[in-house]
Design goal:
The complex is a heterodimer. Chain A has 12 helices and 2 strands; from the N terminus they run H-H-H-H-H-E-E-H-H-H-H-H-H-H. By secondary structure, chain A is mainly alpha-helical. A two-stranded antiparallel sheet of chain A has the order 1-2. Classes of the chains: A mainly alpha, B alpha/beta. The interface of A and B includes residues 175, 189, 263 and 265 of A.
Chain lengths: ~290, ~260
């Protein structure tokens, strides 16, 4: 007699009922106009907002990753001033809400009306009005990126610390400088530890960008809100933009898989198969099985 | 004309906090010598080896490689530590082989060997690869050039590590217990490579527990214990006729 799993059957029944209810709701609901969802999905303000959301995500992550690596290296430096500065940066930017920082960068013009190039406390060679220089989009990129750098610094630091000390010793014994050791030997190995949380951060950033709607920047979320308040198609608008977010996070997850695979080289004796390779192999073995049967 | 020693240590002291690991080491290694350092664990032999290429900073005394002060500049009787770039320059000429190989796991065997010549010496890639293949052939691993370290046995990894160090054409090779992490059956291949190097006239300092190797290949042997040199001389002499009680006690356990 095979082992019975009554619990499994109960769970399957519960999930089946819930799924049926959800499908029923999706099909019969009077507020969920699927045709409207489709229109909103490709509406031009939504697409423009989508572009801004993607641009914000990419730029903020670039600042976050570059800044994070810099902060992590500073933090691990033997120089107490550098590591102290990094510690304080992380303390401030991780210790305040990103929404507050977003407002801060947007209103910083009140504190620093003029931004100039020159000698500190000396003559200025060129200067600009802060609000001309830093528009809504730039303020949002700065706020999200500089905040991300604080988090990313800790991820990079964990990655660097995970690499065996013997690696850096071997590199220095060959005559590589600190910088060469970091770039060629330590960071590539740290990537294995850095990538999974970095993927997490990128996906999280994609969704955190929706906060910029609070400073009236027309991102994907704001575009959806505008349609909702203009047409009262609230639910279709929310579903429409949610589908975009879901699509983008799915693409990012696939990207993460391949980046992880790339940095796994050398760590495993055999590289794991890509999903596509698995599919092809399964198809092939099915064919073979069919042929011999 | 007297020959300048390759390594000259004068009253080298090293402490970790309040623990003194090296309590005044004096020794000389002549060019072309195979110099064996033996002693119980904690005797300071590995620490001393690591001081020679400035992986550890000495606290007092003087340490010269090929007549040049290691890791420091002397100015008005005071020692000033060299900058990162200057230390790196000194290390180019000193190869090191580690107990746990420390190959770069994200690079193939050949990439491991080629890395330092191309990055540090700016040797053109094609030329470096050619030389790298020659070195891998020399250590008997030409067919493993494209393998990652995880695909190699411990003995093979250590031989790649030796090739990697040789790629910088060092004038001195430091071996830190190169066979201690290996299965007994793999030790022989690594020792063969080291024997070949000795025959080619390479100056080598070897921290080892392989007394057979020391006896056969070594030109000079130093027994260290508790951070001091207890006894030194020709390996055959020290190993067969130790003068000190501590040397005798140690050798009776390892031989």
């Amino acid at each position: 007699m095979p082992v019975r799993h009554p619990g499994r059957w109960v769970a399957i029944a519960v999930i089946a009922v819930l799924t049926a209810m959800l499908v029923h709701l999706a099909v019969t609901s009077s507020v969920l106009h699927w045709d409207v969802v489709g229109q909103i999905f490709t509406y031009n303000t939504v697409l423009a907002g989508l572009g801004r959301t993607m641009g914000l995500t990419v730029l903020a992550m670039v600042i976050g990753i570059v800044g994070g690596i810099l902060l992590a290296v500073m933090r691990l430096s033997k120089n107490p001033v550098l590591s102290g500065a990094s510690w304080i940066y992380i303390w401030v930017f991780r210790g305040t809400p990103v929404l507050v920082q977003l407002f801060f960068w947007n209103f910083l013009g009140a504190l620093i009306p003029q931004v100039g190039i020159g000698i500190p406390f000396g003559p200025t060679f060129a200067s600009w009005n802060y609000n001309d220089l830093v528009g809504l989009f730039t303020a949002a990129v700065l706020a999200l990126g500089l905040n991300e750098a604080a988090y990313f610094a800790e991820i990079v630091r964990a990655g660097i610390l995970s690499v065996d000390e013997g690696q850096a010793e071997a590199a220095s014994s060959l005559g590589l400088t600190h910088a060469q050791t970091l770039w060629r030997v330590v960071l590539p190995q740290a990537m294995r530890v850095i990538i999974p949380p970095a993927g997490n951060e990128t996906i999280s950033m994609l969704k955190t960008t929706s906060l910029v709607s609070a400073i009236a920047l027309e991102d994907l979320t704001r575009a959806g809100q505008d349609i909702a308040s203009r047409t009262f198609y609230e639910i279709p608008a929310l579903v429409g933009i949610s589908l975009w977010y879901l699509l983008l996070t799915s693409i990012l997850s696939v990207g993460q898989y391949y980046v992880e695979r790339y940095y796994a080289r050398g760590a495993n004796r055999v590289l794991p198969e890509t999903p596509w390779q698995k599919v092809r192999k399964n198809l092939f073995s099915l064919e073979r099985a069919g042929g011999t049967a | 004309m007297t020959v300048e020693p390759m390594v000259r240590a004068e009253q080298v002291h090293k402490s970790y906090g309040s623990v003194e690991v090296l309590k005044g080491i004096d020794l000389q290694v002549m060019p072309g010598q195979v110099f064996c350092l033996v002693g119980p664990s904690g005797s300071g032999k590995s620490t001393f080896l690591r001081c020679i290429n400035h992986l550890e900073q000495i606290n007092a005394g003087r340490l010269y490689v090929d007549g040049e002060l290691v890791g420091y500049r002397e100015k008005g009787g005071k020692l000033h530590e060299l900058r990162d770039r200057e230390v790196a320059e000194q290390r180019r000429d000193i190869g090191m082989v580690f107990q746990r190989f420390n190959l770069f796991p994200h690079m193939t065997a050949l990439e491991n060997v080629v890395e330092a010549p191309t990055r540090v010496k700016k040797v053109p890639r094609a030329q470096a690869r050619e030389q790298g293949m020659e070195l891998l052939t020399k250590v008997g691993l030409a067919d493993k050039a494209g393998n990652y370290p995880s695909q190699l046995s411990g003995g093979q990894q250590q031989r790649v590590a030796i090739a990697r160090a040789l790629a910088m054409e060092p004038k001195l090779m430091l071996f830190d217990e190169p066979t201690s992490a290996l299965d007994p059956e793999l030790v022989g291949d690594v020792l063969d490579v080291m024997r070949g190097l000795a025959q080619d006239g390479m100056t080598m300092i070897v921290v080892t527990h392989e007394m057979g190797f020391a006896r056969e290949v070594g030109d000079s042997l130093v027994f260290m214990d508790g951070g001091v040199v207890v006894e030194s001389g020709h390996p055959r002499e020290v190993l067969t006729n130790p003068q000190h009680e501590r040397t005798r006690a140690f050798l009776s356990k390892v031989l």
